[in-house]
């Protein structure tokens, strides 16, 4: 881990995504914490006064819905969870609107699904809308559109959603506010000797070993999803800070340069925005298994993927779909927009590109995936 001689990663940030978890927002599931929400709103208003642009990703719809409906136990049935989210979301946005209006700031509700971000046009629309709202000094309040999503297409947790939003708008820093001071070497609820981590590199695999699941029945992802969110956000160059939402004036102090919580620095090269969109597909419909030579030229030489380097095809996909490229061990090394369907790819794989025409009767491109449409998930 790194030394403590550094400034907060929020100090120079112009565009900031702040994510607040369910346990904080709903006072551990006991109903919306009006005092806390009013304080975050006041702090965000102060950041906007400083010329910063802030997006809020807020959890708490399900927890607040349960509270309003008088449900003591989190339901398992998806339709009940979705109903609770629909009820709770009303409370969330009403509360945010009221608190931000005290500072003459408008809020905007933005509910997103994975499909919205996987579709290139909708992704670009979401980006333009969010940027417009920020330019208008409106505070976007984002949550997953829980009412319409099923498990298969869920972001799953708002830490992931926060990182996708950070990538979408190319934020400088993602601040994840939670019920702990930050990351410890083990879950502090279970291990009293756990050591605090103040500063590390986002994407460091050692962090994933330290992070455990959710500490309460109210939160969902725990620390692991926060660490993975930091890794994802770092691909667009965004740093991540994980800090306690109960720390007094935390956002304003971070913005003034004070080091509070765990700072996870983005050190890798920033991926171009279009490639970022490819990397942020949480699910891909198909898989290409590559031989060692193809893995090497992709990773070390940044080349396009040719049919000759593919040994097997899995899943169903059409031309233009995003597919995963995995090595013989099943590790995903890249993903990209494929030029041929699954059945066409199965026919041309292991063959030189010059044979595509004689096999298929036509040729669209010599490459299976052109390097401009390919994003590496593994560094050379
Ligand atoms: N290594 C760790 N360091 C800190 N907290 C951890 C760690 N591993 C697991 N946790 C748990 O993660 C919880 C925070 O995640 P979660 O309950 O999902 O909150 P939120 O609603 O803020 O997303 C903490 O309360 C803590 O019990
Ligand atoms: N969309 C859900 C968020 C669930 C979630 O990720 O919660 P958390 O782990 O507290 O951030 C809701 O609003 O209840």
Automatic annotation (TrEMBL):
Protein name, UniProt field: Glutamate 5-kinase
Domain PUA stretches: 286-369
Entry-linked PROSITE patterns: GLUTAMATE_5_KINASE (PS00902), PUA (PS50890)
EC number: 2.7.2.11
UniProt keyword annotations, A-Z: Amino-acid biosynthesis, ATP-binding, Cytoplasm, Kinase, Nucleotide-binding, Proline biosynthesis, Transferase
Protein family (similarity comment): Belongs to the glutamate 5-kinase family.
Amino-acid positions noted as binding substrate in the UniProt annotation, renumbered to this chain: 59, 146, 158
Pathway noted in the entry: Amino-acid biosynthesis; L-proline biosynthesis; L-glutamate 5-semialdehyde from L-glutamate: step 1/2
Gene (name only): proB
GO biological process: L-proline biosynthetic process
Biological function: Catalyzes the transfer of a phosphate group to glutamate to form L-glutamate 5-phosphate.
A GO molecular function held by the record: RNA binding
This protein's GO CC annotations: cytosol
């Amino acid at each position: 881990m790194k030394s403590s001689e550094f400034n907060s990663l929020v100090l120079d940030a112009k565009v900031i995504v702040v994510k607040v978890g369910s346990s904080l927002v709903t006072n551990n599931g006991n109903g919306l914490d009006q005092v806390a929400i009013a304080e975050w709103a006041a702090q965000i208003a102060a950041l906007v006064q400083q010329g910063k642009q802030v997006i809020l990703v807020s959890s708490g719809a399900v927890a607040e819905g349960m509270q309003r409906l008088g449900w003591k136990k989190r339901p398992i049935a998806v339709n009940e969870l979705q109903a609770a989210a629909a009820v709770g979301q009303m409370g969330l946005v009403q509360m945010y609107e009221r608190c931000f209006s005290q500072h003459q700031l408008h809020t905007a509700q933005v509910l997103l699904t994975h499909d919205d971000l996987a579709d290139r046009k909708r992704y670009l629309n979401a980006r333009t809308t969010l940027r417009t709202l920020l330019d208008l000094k409106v505070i976007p309040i984002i949550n997953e559109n829980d009412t319409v999503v099923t498990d298969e297409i869920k972001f799953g947790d708002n830490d992931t959603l926060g990182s996708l939003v950070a990538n979408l708008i190319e934020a400088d820093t993602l601040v994840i506010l939670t019920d702990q001071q930050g990351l410890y070497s083990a879950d502090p609820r279970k291990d009293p000797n756990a050591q605090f981590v103040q500063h590390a590199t986002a994407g460091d695999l050692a962090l994933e070993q330290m992070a455990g699941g959710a500490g309460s029945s109210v939160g969902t992802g725990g620390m692991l999803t926060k660490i993975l969110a930091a890794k994802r956000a770092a691909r667009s160059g965004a740093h991540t800070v994980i800090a306690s939402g109960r720390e007094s004036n935390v956002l304003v102090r971070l913005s003034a340069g004070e080091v509070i919580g765990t700072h996870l620095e983005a050190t890798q090269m920033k991926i171009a925005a279009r490639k970022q969109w490819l990397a942020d597909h949480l699910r891909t419909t198909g898989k290409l298994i590559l031989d060692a030579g193809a893995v090497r030229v992709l990773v070390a030489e940044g080349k396009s993927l040719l049919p000759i380097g593919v040994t097997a095809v899995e899943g169903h996909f059409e031309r233009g779909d995003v597919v995963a490229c995995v090595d013989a061990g099943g590790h995903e090394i890249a993903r990209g927009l494929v030029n041929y369907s699954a059945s066409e790819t199965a026919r041309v794989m292991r063959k030189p590109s010059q044979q595509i025409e004689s096999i298929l009767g036509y040729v669209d491109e010599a490459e299976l995936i052109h390097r401009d449409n390919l994003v590496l998930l593994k560094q050379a």
